[in-house]
Design brief:
Blueprint lengths: L21 H9 L2 H14 L3 H15 L18 H15 L3 H16 L10 H25 E2 L2 E2 L4 H23 L7 H12 L29 E4 L2 E4 L1 E4 L13 H13 L4 E3 L7 H10 L8 E8 L7 H15 L4 E8 L6 H11 L3 E7 L3 H8 L7 E5 L11 H8 L2 E5 L26 H13 L2 H18 L3 H10 L4 E7 L8 H5 L8 H11 L4 H8 L8
Parallel strand pairs: 5-6, 5-12, 6-7, 7-8, 8-9, 9-10, 10-11, 11-12
Antiparallel strand pairs: 1-2, 3-4
């Protein structure tokens, strides 16, 4: 349908429209939906100015197509999601994506109200039901995260208006009623993660100093201990940490899958028992900090579980000691800890030079054991270090497909004793056996995640799918020699660089795990022959062109 020029509040925007020529209209009319999605995604990547317009038009479309009534979302016979549920879910996910956080929460509240009314006493809730509730729970977490971004100001989250508080209170009441209904029938609360995240919007408890039950960590530098495995270690500042961190960015979206609170906690414990005790997260990874903090708090070996989180400054902010102290306090409160082992700092706008002062203030805070950077390029990392600030790490993208750290960043790391914490080293799961000999995927195939879509685009500019298959073939041959998978070889290749401190491997807690496979990265080393065969393929790539066109590490985010 056409999108009206009338805005949601009844006013009208200027009556203007650009001409779309006939041939362009023909393309739009005839391309398959997946093709349109792929092209639109590429267009958004080419010009950042397109994104606000896209979000605005999407919001108008959603307003124009708003349903006049709420459909029945669950079947009365077996309490399974109806077909209407999936359409309703798509709608509220779109709302949270285009800055309509409160509208999204209102829609999720309708879903929870209908779950509350289910006759769960006479209906057997099976694994499929548990999965449905876990997905809704993850949606609620993502909606609250999107809303926090919407409410963000330079001094923290703005106060809620009375009508906004009512929306959240109504949702909380629905959730509490749902919990009570499930408890009466002997079931666990279905939306525990979302409920915990939602509570912070009403109490704003992140602004308070950590108190009550917290992990109290001593002043000595962290020293990794593990008798369970042969995981390599390295010095990160004064700390000794494992060379593989578990990445929790999958908590930011149900696009990677959803799991119940109990299953997530079990997987955390399984990883810790195997020696994977270092975790990377961020203030905007859904409820990653909160879930990790709740897990660590109850562990007998809490002192051995290492936290690397982030403070990411995306919006214009006036830096002061109070602002920095408040940001750190917020992280500690969410983590339920009195200190953080590594706080990684991201600054969006290099034109605003306050990032130097912010880094100084973070380093000076006694509650932060080590200052790391996140997605800083070489020049700006050097600028901070040359003022006397001690930086122990920089988290950047580095893989066989993205070689940008090798061109400039590596030398600075050697000079200043900074270690790289690398992400994207498995290219969103594309550097894996299952893609060997397979045709290039469509970006929106069911098995493609936001990460794999991102790294598929990197593969395209690096050298294309044909050269990627050549790389997979070489990695497979090397893997057979060492009795490991393609993924393990890809991780080992990154670890062979002495300026790399650790590889961050994404984990889907409670959904799937690769503990045994990840441990194999420490059972061998690549020899000269292995490295030479890989280099032959890399020499055919456009790695240098990628560096020159995209810019140094982190440039894609700016």
């Amino acid at each position: 349908m056409a999108i009206s020029q009338e805005t949601p509040n009844g006013t009208h925007e200027p009556a203007k429209a650009a001409h779309v020529n006939m041939m362009t209209d023909t393309i739009i009319a005839n391309l398959p939906p997946d093709g349109l999605r792929s092209i639109l995604r590429s267009l958004l990547g080419v010009d950042a100015k397109v994104t606000p317009a896209f979000q605005s038009l999407a919001a108008k479309y959603l307003e124009a197509t708003k349903p006049t009534s709420i459909p029945v979302l669950f079947t009365t016979r077996d309490s399974k999601p109806s077909l209407d549920f999936y359409e309703f879910q798509k709608r509220y996910r779109c709302l949270m994506g285009c800055g309509k956080g409160f509208e999204s929460l209102r829609a999720i509240s309708e879903v929870i109200q209908q779950v509350r009314k289910l006759d769960i006493d006479s209906t057997k809730l099976d694994d499929s039901s548990d999965h449905t509730f876990a997905v809704i729970d993850s949606d609620l977490v993502q909606a609250v995260t999107a809303l926090q971004k919407q409410l963000s100001t330079s001094s923290g989250l703005r106060a809620l208006s009375e009508s906004e508080q009512c929306i959240i209170q109504d949702l909380r009441k629905a959730n509490d009623g749902c919990d009570a209904n499930f408890a009466r029938s002997g079931h666990s609360p279905p939306f525990g993660r979302g409920s915990s995240t939602l509570r912070t919007l009403l109490t704003q408890d992140e602004k308070k100093e950590p108190n009550g039950m917290n992990v109290h960590r001593g002043s000595r530098p962290y020293q990794y201990k593990s008798s369970a495995s042969n995981i390599e270690t390295m010095a990160l500042g004064e700390a000794i940490v494992p060379r593989m961190f578990m990445g929790l960015w999958q908590f930011s979206s149900p696009a990677w899958g959803s799991a119940s609170w109990s299953n997530i906690q079990k997987d955390f414990r399984k990883h810790a028992d195997a020696g994977f005790v270092a975790y990377d997260m961020a203030d905007h990874y859904g409820d990653a900090e909160r879930t990790f903090g709740a897990f660590r708090l109850l562990q007998d070996d809490a002192e051995n579980i290492y936290c690397a989180t982030k403070w990411c400054v995306f919006e214009t902010t006036t830096i002061s000691p109070g602002v920095v102290k408040g940001a750190i306090t917020k992280r500690l409160t969410t983590l339920q800890s009195n200190r953080v082992e590594l706080l990684q700092f991201h600054w969006q706008d290099y034109k605003d030079k306050q990032y130097v002062e912010a880094a100084k203030l973070i380093e000076q805070d006694s509650r932060v054991d080590g200052l790391g950077l996140c997605n800083f390029d070489t020049d700006h990392m050097d600028e901070i270090i040359e003022t006397g600030v001690k930086v122990v790490s920089n988290q950047v993208q580095f893989s066989l497909i993205d070689l940008r750290p090798t061109f400039k960043m590596a030398e600075s790391c050697r000079k200043h004793n900074v270690k790289l914490l690398t992400y994207g080293s498995l290219c969103g799961g594309l550097l894996a056996d299952r893609w060997l000999g397979k045709p290039a995927p469509n970006l929106f195939d069911p098995e493609m995640t936001p990460s794999s879509r991102k790294y598929f685009e990197m593969i395209t500019i690096w050298g294309g799918w044909k050269l990627f298959q050549e790389l997979l073939t070489i990695l497979s041959t090397i893997g057979k020699k060492h009795k490991v998978s393609i993924s393990v070889v890809a991780v080992r290749w990154v670890l062979e660089h002495e300026y790399v401190g650790a590889v961050i491997v994404g984990v889907r807690m409670g959904i799937s795990e690769h503990v045994e496979e990840n441990l194999k990265a420490f059972t061998f080393k690549l020899d000269e022959e292995d490295l030479g065969e890989v280099q032959k393929v890399l020499d055919k790539s456009k790695a240098r062109d990628v560096f020159e066109a995209m810019g140094d590490c982190g440039s894609e985010y700016r």
